[in-house]
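Intended use. Records like the one below are meant for learning the mapping from a protein sequence to its folded structure. Do not use them to infer anything beyond what is encoded.
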Amino acid sequence: MQDAPLDMRMNRESDLSAYDIVNSYEETDIYKIIRDYGEEKFASRIAKFIVDRRKLKPINTTLELVDIIKAAIPAKARREGPHPAKRTFQAIRIAVNKELEILNKAVEGAVNKLNKDGRIAVITFHSLEDRIIKNKFKELEEPCTCPKEFPVCVCGKLPRVKIITKKPIDPSVEELEVNPRSRSAKLRIGEKI
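Structure written out for the chain above:
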């Protein structure tokens, strides 16, 4: 919304910034980041526009990147839905901060610290995050890595969590009225065995 340096680092000591991704990554890598982390259907076009524009001069600021994204997305799509740059910015932020990798490790670490019958509750705001939590909980509930054709488990991995919420809990109508930003929130709960 405001012009700022193209950074997006949550940890200022991290080497990788949004500037680095936008100005030095290959087009195919930018495309994959925008497609996989932003689930943006115009990812290919946006990546091409970014690479073409940076040939003229480096992309330094957030509003420069917004202008490129707007140019890449067809006018009809820009008029409908959320801000046209939202998904791309989200994708680049996730890549810069390695958010999805950290999420997996954080859940594992939190479960290790829980006492028996202790609960872990995780709120996600993006389908990628929710999928990671869902799969991590499932892995902790059913950790056996033995082939399905084995009649008995020989890996010895025991369940560590019982999933309390088989499906995520979405915000209620009342919550949405008070807090519209909660619309994408999903809550999942697990209990240590």
